[in-house]
Amino acid sequence: MSGREDIEQLLVQLPHQEEIRPEGGEVSFGTAWEIRAFALAVAAHQNGQYDWPDFQHALSTAIRTWEDAGTKEPWRYYDRWLEALESLLASTGTLDPSEVDDRAHVVLTTPRDASHHRARLEPVAVDAARV
Amino acid sequence: MTTTESPLPVPAVALRSEEEIAARVKALEAIMIEKGIMTTEAVDRLAGIYENEVGPHLGAKVIAKAWTDPEFRERLLADGTAACEELGIGGMQGEDMTAVENTDTVHNVITCTLCSCYPWPVLGLPPNWYKAPAYRSRIVREPRKVLREDFGLDIPESVEIRVWDSSAELRYFVLPRRPEGTEDLPEDQLAELVTRDSMIGVGRPLHPGAA
User: Fold this and answer.
1) Where are the domains of chain A?
2) What is the distance between the alpha carbons of residues A13 and A51, in angstroms, rounded to a whole number?
3) Per-residue pLDDT at B4
4) Domain presence at residue B4
5) What is the ipTM of this complex?
6) pTM for the model
7) Which of B3, B25, B107 to substitute to test the interface with A, most A CBs within 10 Å?
8) Are residues B53 and A44, on separate chains, in Cβ contact within 8 Å?
9) Chain segment B29-38, per-residue pLDDT in tens
């Protein structure tokens, strides 16, 4: 069982601490997908898929590549994080990047809650008071 | 990887929209689980350590303001989305949000009977049990029993329980009752008493001193 302390040990080794801890101490995320991406990378490491320095290296490389490209896109740390995770798994032959492209396409083209688009304006169930 | 300049097999991509990147993370997770790279449980557990830091604290701000500002409370109950926007809260998965208010005689609880529609901007990520078929079906059939047995929340027989079904078009959250003995607390301290579960309706806010 790895707790928060174990994760903190991993995190302090990563570049751009100010992105991981924007409030200056506490690890913080802006969106749900960031937490998910974060958890995937840590879980794969803890399951023995790679050593943490390898992820650290992949992340540094992804950040440097982005910086060198001089793109005008807004900077998002967890975009680079996701790239690092994908490239690391691809480099070990565990993952085929086109596989992720295809699956992401399926996710995007499947209407979310396909059958659940109508607002339900009344309670779906009522358990009346009995006294 | 040992060299410092090893080429990366993933090409640089244009900035993805929030929706696209969220879909990509979801896709990657599904593939990683299928390949046995890690388990769902491990990812959920790791995400769970931090997920309380996205969302619920925003919802808690909304609730605390409603407790202290009667006019805001009126606006919140009339149009949840607009009231949240006043506090800069909104965005994906929160297009249409409605707050339902607990009173002396009514207790509200939210679910999504078909999937896991959830007001992310105010509550953060849905907990796993919220997405589980067991909760989604049982809370509708026997809400009083589920609240008591699964969540340890005993709703008096004198109180009616209403179950609200969130959909993609309309997502509910609960405005819980303000705990007793908090008359002198400022808004920021009240917010610390508001739990995620109290805004789903499966728990109560904390009492001062327990936060």
Assistant:
1) 4-99
2) 12
3) 43
4) no
5) 0.82
6) 0.62
7) B25
8) no
9) 999 999 999 9
